[in-house]
Design brief:
The protein folds into two domains: 17-200, Beta-Lactamase; 323-474, Histidine kinase-like ATPase, C-terminal domain (Heat Shock Protein 90). It is built from eleven helices and twelve strands. It has helices at 36-52, 57-68, 111-118, 172-199, 205-287, 291-318, 321-325, 328-342, 360-381, 410-415, 426-435; strands at 73-79, 87-95, 104-106, 122-125, 143-151, 154-163, 346-352, 385-392, 396-403, 439-445, 448-456, 471-474. Strand 10 (439-445) and strand 11 form a beta hairpin.
Length: 478
């Protein structure tokens, strides 16, 4: 593979610079959360490499950029010193462009020169459209993110990361990481320049080694300071995460309370009014004289009955009164019987014949998980049958919802969500269970899915009959 050569007479035929710069895209793309621990580990590795083998530090730096930016190629560009800085050369490259080590670009017409001129990190897209000497370089470049670095206020080079196809897009986190590593590149370059000078000053070598140790120690000190900063930031992130979880808990509680209020309003107010309407219609039907008027009233009575049933169903879906009155098992039994009567899904129920009352928060959480899971089975799994199973011992309760459907994709499980999610997705199920100290496990494949919720329970709830002693199995009812 040929190295890129200096451009001679291509300036006029090249596209404008702004047509290949897409730096603003970095802040429009979804931002990855900062991984300060990974950044800190990388800086520590570089610090040790600088101390142990400084002559290989540039290659170690290129390898580090490749890893932390998840790039296809990465490298360092330095200005030449023997000709007054007319060219950039590449002393270290990692990844797919590694065979191009030793190549370079002109200072006055190339991406590295433009980065130094702008004095900021820049993101280029298909820069071969402007710098045509890259057209023969393989593999071609999809995006290139470059960051300048300086020594004593003077621009001496750039560090860069490249992706060769559109499967990976750089974002603002990559810009932050590259800028952070650019500060290290400054120190590394300065140390290497010092080493080159030491080759010509062998008589003052104990002094040169001492200077090197001081520089390395200074970098170690910077790393320690940076570590403290990162630890503080991590603590702040953890605090913010805990605050978000607390807010999530409050939102879920508010949602459940509002559902309970609406359900009670539908049942106690609207439902009662519909009941009175039905009685009035039935009384009027008995008193009419003509068949035509009787038929109209009969139709109205049927509609009122249908509305009453729908309100009762909606009220139960929002918040089953049985859950407050008789507990989780009774509420689940009634909910499953309702599904089986509609014949949209056959649900088998395997639960202890008796389970002592759990806390209100635990019971509503388990009911909501069952409710959401069965809705997903009906709408998205393609399964005609499902099983709801509850078992417990003295320390924990296990809830399983089993179907024979198409299953989740690995991508859906990794993201914590799915096209199968309806109302309460996998993320919300996990969050609900986490808030009561439980967790959600998923076993899935093309033969079906098992959603398994594991929840710790107090010893007082374990006085019910053991999970295997007296279970009931409820199928479809006719």
């Amino acid at each position: 593979m040929a190295h890129p050569a200096p451009l001679v007479d291509s300036h006029q035929s090249a596209v404008p610079l702004q047509s290949i710069i897409c730096t603003e895209e970095l802040h429009r793309r979804p931002l990855r959360p900062p991984d300060y621990q990974k950044e800190n580990r990388a800086l520590v590795v570089l610090a040790h490499a600088l101390n142990d083998s400084p002559h290989t530090i540039l290659q170690t730096l290129a390898d580090t950029i490749l890893e932390v930016c998840q790039a296809d190629s990465a490298g360092i560009s330095l200005l030449t010193t023997n000709d007054g800085g007319k060219r950039f050369y590449w002393p270290a490259i990692a990844g797919r462009w590694k065979p191009h080590i030793g190549g370079g670009t002109p200072r006055d017409f190339g991406p590295c020169g433009d980065v130094l001129d702008h004095n900021i990190p820049l993101l280029f897209c298909h820069f071969e459209r402007r710098y045509t000497y890259f057209q023969s370089v393989t593999p071609p470049v999809e995006e290139c993110l470059l960051s300048p670095f300086y020594v004593k206020g003077k621009g001496v080079g750039t560090i860069w990361a490249i992706v060769h196809d559109d499967r990976r897009k750089f974002d603002a986190e990559d810009e932050r990481l590259l800028s952070s590593l650019g500060k290290f590149a400054s120190s590394a370059y300065q140390i290497l320049r010092s080493l080159d000078a030491l080759k010509f000053q062998m008589a003052e070598r104990e002094k040169a080694e001492e200077q090197l140790r001081k520089l390395a120690d200074g970098l170690e000190t910077q790393v320690r300071v940076r570590t403290q900063e990162l630890e503080q930031r991590n603590a702040e992130v953890l605090q913010q995460t805990e605050q978000l979880r607390e807010l999530s808990n409050r939102l879920l509680q508010t949602q459940d309370e509002e559902r309970r209020r609406i359900a009670r309003e539908l049942h106690d107010s609207t439902g009662q009014k519909i009941a009175v309407l039905r009685m009035d219609l039935a009384r009027a039907q008995r008193q009419v004289g003509s068949l035509q008027e009787g038929a109209v009233l009969s139709e109205c009575l049927s509609l009122a009955t249908e509305i009453s049933n729908e309100i009762r169903t909606l009220s139960y879906v929002l918040h089953p009164p049985m859950l407050d009155e008789l507990g989780l098992i009774s509420a689940i039994r009634v909910y499953v019987e309702g599904i089986n009567k509609r014949r949209t899904l056959q649900v088998m129920l395997e639960v202890p014949s008796r389970l002592e009352r759990l806390s209100e928060e635990v019971e509503i959480t388990l009911f909501r998980v069952i409710q959401a899971a069965l809705v997903n089975v009906q709408l998205h799994s393609g399964s005609k049958m499902a099983t709801v199973r509850i078992a417990h011992d003295t320390h924990k309760l296990m809830l399983e919802i089993i179907d024979q459907g198409c299953g989740f994709t690995p991508e859906a499980i990794k993201k914590g969500d799915s096209m199968r999610a309806s109302g309460v997705g996998l993320i919300s199920m996990k969050e609900r269970l986490r808030l009561i100290g439980g967790r959600l496990e998923i076993d899935t494949g093309n033969r079906g899915t098992i959603l398994r919720g594991l929840v710790p329970i107090s010893s007082s709830a374990a006085h019910a009959q053991p999970s295997g002693a007296s279970n009931e199995s409820v199928g479809s009812s006719s």
